[in-house]
Amino acid sequence: FADQNRQLQPHVVEVFISSKYSFASTNDASNKLRGLDITVYEIDGIESIERYLSTDMPADPARSKQIALRRFQAMDERTRTRMKQSAVGLAKAMQYRVDRYPAIVFDGQAVVYGVTDVQSAFSYYQAWLSGKTP
Known about the structure:
134 residues; alpha+beta; Glutaredoxin; four-stranded mixed sheet; 6 helices; 52% helix; elongated
């Protein structure tokens, strides 16, 4: 029975969300999914940073370019990391052929759409692996 549970346990969980959704991680899920590599990708993170960079820009293209460059250079490390993570998430979503959000991918093999709660998605994943309905 322990081997069966281990087989139903994914190793990598990737969550693809947009700013419209928040990732729900409950304590119960954390306990049940302990030891998993869970990565959350906010797929529209680049768009929100682009909006910030282009806010209140003048009509003059040369001046706008200077302002955008200054804003980009002034971004803190957290924002830069968020932007990089978003780009990685977009690439992975394309690789997995994720076509809508939210989506939670288990081991790069199975996708659960429309769920932001990792515990619920995990239940669907386990049911799929065992051939049952949740």
